[in-house]
Amino acid sequence: MENAGKFYINGKWVDPISSQKMDVINPATEEVITRITLASEEDVDLAVAAAKRAFSTYSQTTIDQRLGWLENLLAIYKRRYEEVARTISMELGAPITMAREQQADAGTAHLEDFIHVLRDLKLEETLHNGETLLREPIGVCGLITPWNWPINQIVLKVIPALATGCTCVLKPSEFTPLNATLYAEMIHEAGFPAGAFNLVQGAGPVAGATLSQHPDISMMSFTGSTRAGKAITRDAAENIKRVTLELGGKSPNIVFDDVDVEDRITFSVLDVFNNTGQTCDAPTRMLVQRSIYDEALKVAKRVGEAAKVGDPSVEGDHIGPLVSHIQFERVQTLIQAGIDEGATLLAGGVGKPDGINEGYYTKPTIFADVNNTMRIAREEIFGPVVAMIPFDTEEEAIKIANDTPYGLAAYIQTPDAAKADRVARKLRAGMIRINGAFPRPGSPFGGYKQSGIGREGGLFGLEDFMEIKMLHKP
């Protein structure tokens, strides 16, 4: 990729000041794809300065102008869609079918929705008391995105920033940097003014911290671990900048005894295995009513043992590798912790799948007889690992579900609509998915407690990037 080793600053591809390099690894083969440069503080400063200069004019552009650039971008993205899917598959390890149908598709779906919402955005309105309210872009935004759903998160941050008249500096994950490079090429081709969007590659402790601490950054938007989110919040506090966070999760999945056990348990296990378990709102804690618990274990064991792991470049519904050796070691450690703490291993376990010697592949794993004090029930594993916990009553299920520092999502499986609604209103989570319902573009994505601050997507995603100004007239 021609621009892989460069940064995009002030409308141009530039050579970095930093000389620190990092290999980008294909997680399926452990081979080097390319090398990127990790930004220094000076590189970040140049990108922020470009965004600051551009803000004075870009913030004054009209919604119609921005809609024109966004529609150009949408057309370009659709043209390069397959390239995006194959790049994500190569650097993340997502199976190509999944990368095409889910990972790359998110870039189209969210952009289309933002265009729709922007057309109806009210920048000025009269309040009930007769005074005038204005909505204006907040300023220069620092955007830090993760490796697990790379284009999804880039679109959910970059597009609302540009749509509202903000300028921005994007720092994607250093483990999946190439899809961000592709997106920068598309933004350039779409005709956005120089400096409105800037891209630097780099690691969190240098590039990320420099953005968070920078006095010319008005807002930080971060998706990643809760640990890193806390560090960004501390860094940003010095300048009192706005911070939005989309962090970790340990989502409960309450399966009541009135379900079709075969259907709902199969769905629940495969939902965790999707994206190799590397999804923040995955239903990793499966709470099953005791009267169907034994039957549920049999179904889960069969589904877990039947799950296929394989080459992400091959079409199919198999599971790919984890993204890196770091993630592989973390997942292995927590699987071993589940064994050591006395959970019953139904399927999978430590080590790589049989016959696989290279790549960061892990066994799809299911634990039974888990209690909510175990590490596998408390910590975000971020791998294809299911923890099954029995419960007796509706009240007990709600108590277990809410007993977590996280609150990103929760799942309910029951054909009883009244019960689903009743339980949903008692769960402390930002998103409740009932009977497999999937979030639609435009709905706010985010959570309670240590799962974050703010919401992404649709109107709520735009509003996070805007300031409120009041006009008080005599």
Automatic annotation (TrEMBL):
Q: Name one GO molecular function term.
A: oxidoreductase activity, acting on the aldehyde or oxo group of donors, NAD or NADP as acceptor
Q: What Gene3D superfamilies is this protein classified in? A: Aldehyde Dehydrogenase, Chain A, domain 1, Aldehyde Dehydrogenase, Chain A, domain 2
Instruction: Report keywords, A-Z.
Output: Oxidoreductase
Annotated Aldehyde dehydrogenase domain ranges read: 13-470
* Pfam families, per the entry: Aldedh (PF00171)
Output the InterPro entries linked to this UniProt entry. Answer: Ald_DH/histidinol_DH (IPR016161), Ald_DH_C (IPR016163), Ald_DH_CS_GLU (IPR029510), Ald_DH_N (IPR016162), Aldehyde_DH_dom (IPR015590)
Task: Give the residues annotated as active site.
Answer: E246
The question of whether Ligase is a record keyword is answered with no
Stated family = Belongs to the aldehyde dehydrogenase family.
**Which protein is depicted?**
Aldehyde dehydrogenase
Q: Which organism is it from?
A: Thalassospira profundimaris
